[in-house]
Amino acid sequence: MKKLLPLLLVLLMVVSFAGCSSNAPNNADAANKDHLARIQEAGKLVVAMEGNWSPWTYHDENTNELVGFDVELAAAIAEKIGVDIEYVEGPWDGLFMGLSNGRYDLVVNGVGITESRKETYDFSEPYVYNTTVLITRTDNEEIKTLSDLQGKVTANSLGSTFESIAIEAGVDHVETVDSLEETLNLVINGRVDATLNAKGSFDDYMRAHPDDPLQVVEEVSIERVGIPFVKGEDNATLLALVNEVIAEKQADGSLAELSTKYFGFDMSHE
């Protein structure tokens, strides 16, 4: 049995690398190439997103196809690189972990550029300027501004910018959820007092559910949205290429068109 142990360890190491994106080199030759070169060699860009946050990334109710603003932007990046694209869906709090450990090449999921995130990640240029809004039931008379959240209960995805804003505002508790619909249902049912979310996402939800008793009581802030990268020279050329895609789409108006298609208005400029 002792003689078999080294062989078993080798096999386990091989299996542990299977299924990884090109973000993490797994041989000596790949180690000499940067991230973009490994993506090109693999012929595939692995992009992570939630898949349940309309209109950023969601499934068409008729075809169940993954669609959305960020889905199309990610596809444009893969086209620019000249490779196929593979979408991987998962909960918000796992996206960054997967990016950091090399499971995904990119996370394209309406990621706000914050000072705390910039300590760990480099970001592309902003491609959306997103208004954060405070949402309550229409019959709520207690919450009118962010300061009224003191001691209240809100709901948001774990690790989201919206969760951070609520905590800074002094909420008593943030209920962790996995989707916008779940969040808003908690508000409607009175299980939480309010939530913070993207204006574009809330507007999209209300177009589909116009009779739901929900309202925006305050526009809290404007958030710059970009694509995060693990810090380091390994991602320098990939970051430059992504910035090139964003600049081209802003210049030719296609980013504005894409924003209008999914959000109903142009969010591509401040």
Characterize the structure shown:
This protein folds into two domains: 34-127 and 227-263, Periplasmic binding protein-like II (D-Maltodextrin-Binding Protein, domain 2), CATH 3.40.190; 129-224, Periplasmic binding protein-like II (D-Maltodextrin-Binding Protein, domain 2, 3-Layer(aba) Sandwich). The strands form five sheets. It has a four-stranded antiparallel beta sheet with strand order 6-12-8-11, sandwiched between helices. Strands 4-1-5 form a three-stranded parallel beta sheet, sandwiched between helices. Strands 2-3 form a two-stranded antiparallel sheet. With 270 residues, the chain is an alpha/beta fold. The model is unreliable at 1-19 (pLDDT under 50). It contains eleven helices and 13 strands. 39% of the residues lie in helices and 23% in strands.
